[in-house]
Amino acid sequence: MNVLEYIKENILYLDGGMGTLLQASGLASGELPERWNITHSDVIVDIHRSYFDAGSNVVNTNTFGANSLKFDEEELDVIFSAAFENAKKARDTSFGTQKKWIALDIGPTGRMLAPYGDLDFLDAVEIFAKSVRLGVKYGADLIFIETMNDSYETKAALLAAKENSELPVFVSNAYGADGKLMTGATPAAMVAMLEGMGTDAIGVNCSLGPKALEGVVAEYLKYSSIPVILKPNAGLPVSVDGKTVYNVSPEEFANDVAALVGDGALIVGGCCGTTPEYIASTVKALANISPKKIEKKNITLVSSYTHAVEFGDVPILIGERINPTGKKRFKEALRENDMDYILGEGIAEEERGVHLLDVNVGLPEIDEKKMLTGAVSALQAIIDLPLQIDTSNPEAMEAALRVYNGKAMINSVNGKKESMDAVFPLAKKYGGLVVALTLDERGIPERAEDRVEIAEKILKEAAKYGIDKKDIIFDPLAMSISADKNAARETLRAVKIIREKLGCHTSLGVSNVSFGLPRRDIINGAYFTMAMECGLSAAIMNPYSDEMMKAYYAYLALSGNDENCSKYIEFATNLSESVSAPVSSEKQTAGEQFASQLERAIVKGLSAEAAKITAEMLGNTPALEIVDKHIIPALDVVGVGFEKKTVYLPSLLMSAEAAKAAFEVIKENMSASEATAKKCRVVIATVKGDIHDIGKNIVKLILENYGFSVSDLGKDVSPEIIVCEAKRLSAPLVVLSALMTTTVPAMEETVKLLHKELPTTKVMVGGAVLTQEYADKIGADKYAKDAMEAVRYAEEISK
Amino acid sequence: MVEVKEFAAPQINKKEIHRYAGERVPSAELSQIIDECLPEILDKLTYKVSFCKTSVRINKNEVDLGFLRVESSALAKNLSGCDAAIIFAATVGLAPDRLVARNLVSSPTRALVFDAIGAERIESLSDAFCEDIRAKIGNEKKLRPRFSAGYGDLDIEVQRDIFRLLDCPKNIGLTLTESLLMTPSKSVTAIIGIF
């Protein structure tokens, strides 16, 4: 019988701790336990057998850390072969009469994934894939991914399992006392992602005792429609006479686990500190308890690496600003691969209060697949919100869904067969909440009933893939009332019918309704209110539109979805402030010597003021004059102060930011030819192996302020890529940063390659660990101790 | 045995934040930015330590800590007269890294401040941990200053041994890159001699 068939009717018992028993058998601290499959196979067989004897249905192979990062290919194969042989021998010689299965055990790699660590997500998938293939080769009955404390690594392991086997996959995460994973994910976020990707059972193990995991288990049971796993520690470790003892006894453990089985957990075992005695006690305590039936939950969730967003009575706001349509500056950023600009848009939207970000970076002339995966990776590294991946290119969509850390919204599918054939397989594989447009081969029907009919057709087709209706959200398409006076009404009727009759959620791109009309905001805000009253679950919208935000917060308060009207009051208070209190513009005070208000704003580090003054000046002053006569002199005042040590780094940065704000205003108003009139090109990067880049970014900002065109390659950059970019731009100067002594060799390698391939290019180095002596030793042309020294050298080169 | 302990947030030393940001004399402008940044980061920080007591044997420049035998005259000097040592790894989590990365896009000054707050927090955590140990060992024993891999002639490769001993990834979510950088970056490992 398949294990999945078995858990439909029975509680499934797992094994208990392995590490604890190995240490008791003499495994030294720091020794790799996986090697014991070969060197101490009798010990491993005994441990497995004692669990089967105690009543475990499933034992996990002793392969927790068996991956290609720790072992070479040949040894890995031998370890897996021995591990499965040991488990099989235990199964065949156990006196237990219960059903027995052997699970391929997969634990974390012990490395952090990029961008905060140096393990690439796709490389992690391949590392896990190797282990999965070996597990399949040696006869695993199921795959058990466990003790994962990072959502992204969990996803990598799960993808590897799904792509390299047909076996059932169980996934179990390790939660801290705060009820979150080490990298921040909540249980709801994990349920959303793992269930979406088609995991067969999900749950928790390790970290804490069963009682302390109650809260986490309750969250799993609340959201999950698949079996929930509970594999806790025997409480917490305490030191008694120099020995490690766990503070929960087998009986107490069994009772606590039984209580959670009563709540709905179906798959139980133990982790650190538990022994066969704990499993035997648990089996005994549950002897007369029948498993609770799983209720199918109709809860619509999307998730980011930290949290889940639930679609319900309170409408969800989806920011629409990451989209090049009609935006000159955004298009330019895409063409120049200016990721910071895109990230800046995302941060601003999050600060405006949206719950999700739509991400559309398609332009005919760029590689959308590369751009979209890059944008998704960069956004999720610094923004907590879930993303809506918005593209009509299935290849780009798949690549983006693959690297997405969570359960995304997918924008979009429609009733055309071709569209459903392309999108549904991706939604099935990667999980996601699919936005479904109610149009098909015939176009967009006029009547609401006909749009609902398309919605029903879409649901039917999704069901063929096993995609539940909770994972489809319909967009019945807001159409312009300037073309058809009934357009708005029909769409609202469709919203209502879909919500009430189909029990599905809806989303609208509200602003389309006002196309062709003046003062569109007025119509948009009113329509948004009407739509929410009809049961609209989400809106793709511009969070900078005051009318839309007013409608939203007023609706929340009026519909009883805002306790004490607190959200409304906060919103209204901030709104009046931003209207009545313009940027502070205190005038020059006595004793201050500034040539102009702009110079003063920059020296004082007042970004908003600098931008405002620049905008005013552009009316009657040529852009280049503003730069040469006001911005650069201001920067020099601060720069010289910094060099004389009368100005500290924070003040230098504040001024640099203010100057940048002024430049942004100028850039928006400059013609392309003016904008490119710059000093020389500079390539900047943090060297291979180094992943911290605050210093490098400071130097970049100051160089840009002084008019250099800086190509920033980021961090952890290989010598070849740096050389390639310097060649491409014919850059006379390359700037390299390194933080650690361990990465200076990579810097040396880069310097050598640059000098060999580009003999006339100068290389300037800097960073926490660098000194003049180091710089000389590795053959750099220049060592700069700080950003200002870097600017001075760059200016010399530029002459 | 390896123990894991989570600490309450140590008292904030604002002057140190100014210093880490590069100000020897605290300015009112930066003080205001620090005050704006603190509420954004404080509830995202965790204060976790994994630690273990080891024996110490010294033979000339060779130091034997049970889990590790290493040549280092600086460490031998630091631990001379000690019969035991505490090995620890501490981290305040990934929040400073994320906030620095995020603010490098929108405001490098705030990025610098978040970096400085992270530096102050991990130092304060390390101090709190040492206080904790000091209280445990009683009045007769004393602690040597913290000594980390990479100090003096102590090979930074020792990090790998410390990480293995303390099971840092699993216990406190702290990992090592191939180039021996710690991530989360606001983390400390060190050896503290007891004499």
Summary?
The complex is a heterodimer of chains A (799) and B (195). With 799 residues, chain A is an alpha/beta fold. Chain A contains 31 helices and 25 strands.
The total count of strands of chain B amounts to: 9
Low-pLDDT stretches of chain B: none
Mean pLDDT of chain B: 95
**Rg for CA atoms of chain B:** 18 Å
Biggest sheet details of chain A: 8 strands, parallel
Mean pLDDT of chain A: 93
Distance between the termini of chain A: 79 Å
Structural class of chain A: alpha/beta
Helical residue percent band of chain B: 40-55%
Tell me, what's the shape of chain A? Answer: globular
Largest sheet of chain B: 4 strands, antiparallel
As laid out across the biggest beta sheet of chain A, the strand order is: 1-10-7-6-5-4-3-2
Structure in words:
The complex is a heterodimer of chains A (799) and B (195). About 1% of the residues of chain A have low confidence. In chain A, helix 22 crosses helix 24. Chain A folds into four domains: 283 residues, Alpha-Beta Barrel (TIM Barrel); 281 residues, Dihydropteroate synthase-like (TIM Barrel), CATH 3.20.20.20; 73 residues, Methionine synthase domain (Methyltransferase, Methionine Synthase (B12-binding Domains), Chain A, domain 1); 121 residues, Rossmann fold. With 799 residues, chain A is of the alpha/beta class. In chain A, the strands form five sheets. Chain A has an eight-stranded parallel beta sheet with strand order 1-10-7-6-5-4-3-2. Chain A contains 31 helices and 25 strands. Chain B has a four-stranded antiparallel beta sheet, with helices on both faces. A three-stranded antiparallel beta sheet of chain B has the order 3-4-5, covered by helices on one side. Chain B is built from seven helices and nine strands. Chain B has a single domain, classed as NADH Oxidase, CATH 3.40.109.40.
